[in-house]
Amino acid sequence: MPVSASVPGPDSDGRSRILGAFALERVPGSAIGAEALPQAQAGALAALVARDLTRHASDAARLQCALAAAHYDPVELLRPGFPLHAQLGDLAASAPGGAAGGARVVAFGSHAGALPPPLVPAAEYRDGPLRLMPFVLEGATADIHGTAALLESVLMEHGMAAADTALLAQDGFGLQVEHARYLTVLDLCAMTALQYEHAGLGPLWPVIEAALLAPGREAWVDAAPEPLLHHAEGETRLALFSPAGWRARHAPTEDDPARLRRGFQHFEARQRQWTSVLMAHGIAVTCVQADAADPRAAL
Known about the structure:
By secondary structure, the chain is an alpha+beta fold. 41% of the residues lie in helices and 19% in strands.
C-alpha cells in the first residue's frame, strides 16, 4: 500500500496511506506526565487533529484519520518500513467499520492504563526533546496523491497545530510544550537529517535515508577519518580494523605510539556511536573484518 511522497509500497487494494506525526517540542528540562491518553481523551484529540489537517488540505476530510494518542521519539518512527505507522494503520483497518474504507477518525489510547501492545513507546527514548504522535491518513489511491502533495508542500513551513489541539495534548500528557505542529514522515526525515548534521552525525544520514526510503539503493560512507560503512540490498555492513589495519588506512605516516593509541580508541568509539544510532533506527549492522589492502572489497 503506497504512502506519501517517495516512500514505497505495493498497491494491492487500490488504497494508499499518508504517514505523518503530530509533533510536540518540549520545554528543555521539563517533566513528562503520561505516555498515553485515556481512550476518551484520545478520541477528542484525534478529532481535533483530523480537523487541523483538513484545514491544511481540504481533501483530507475524505480520508480515514488514525492517531496513536501516545508520544514517541523520532527514532521509533523512522525505521525501515515505518513499522509503527504500519501497525497503526493495520489496527485502524481491524477496528469495527474498518472494512468499509470510508472517511472516519480512529484513535488509539490507553484502556485501564495500557496501550495496544504494538503501540507501547520504548522506555529508553522517553525523555527526548521532540515527542511525536503518529497519524495515518488512508483512502482510495485516487484521493491520496493530491492531498499527499499538498501536505508535503505546506506542513513543514505552515503546519502549526490549532491552539485548542495543542492545549489538549499538553494538558493530557502533562507536558510543557514550546511548539506543536504537524509533519509528514519526509518532513521528519529532513528535520532529523539537519539535527544529525548539527550533532556531527551528518556522514551517517545517507545510509539511514537509504534504509528508510530506498532499501535497495546503495550508499557508502567512505571518508577518512570516519568509519567505513556500506548499505546495499537492505543490508548495512561496517568495516572493522585491527590497530595495524586502522593505521594503514587512517594514519600511515604517524609514528608516535600514544597518538596512534588515542586515534584508534577514538575511531572505535565512533564506530560504537554509529552502530548505536543505526540500531536505534531499527537498522541491523553486520560487522566485517576489513584489514585487506582494499577494505571496500570486504563490504
